[in-house]
Amino acid sequence: MSDTFTANGAARASGRAIAAIIAGDDSGLRELAELLAPYMPAQEPLEPDRWLTTKEAAEYAGTSANSLHKAMAAREIHFEQDVPGGRAWFKRADVDAWRRGERPGSRVRRAA
């Protein structure tokens, strides 16, 4: 019986929260967020956008290093090198942009 009461109570509370949101009351939004919080996955802390090697960038993108090299040659992905023909370095944000089909807006830069 208590489980039914809890479910009905939550339904009434979420109904009130939705009505408050529609009325423009921010407290309804907070109440709804509190009701949904137990059902949301825990957020993992984000790592800072560090430099990735070609192998790490390929693994992160779910592709092969060869595919990444082809994208580099076609200038489809932003990367930096210490010296011409040297090791390539990628930022995670650049790999994400490449996966979304975005092309870099500038030429390849050399790492300082």
UniProtKB/TrEMBL annotation:
Domain Helix-turn-helix, chain residue ranges per copy: 51-101
Record GO terms (molecular function): DNA binding
Name this protein carries in UniProt: Helix-turn-helix domain-containing protein
Pfam families: HTH_17
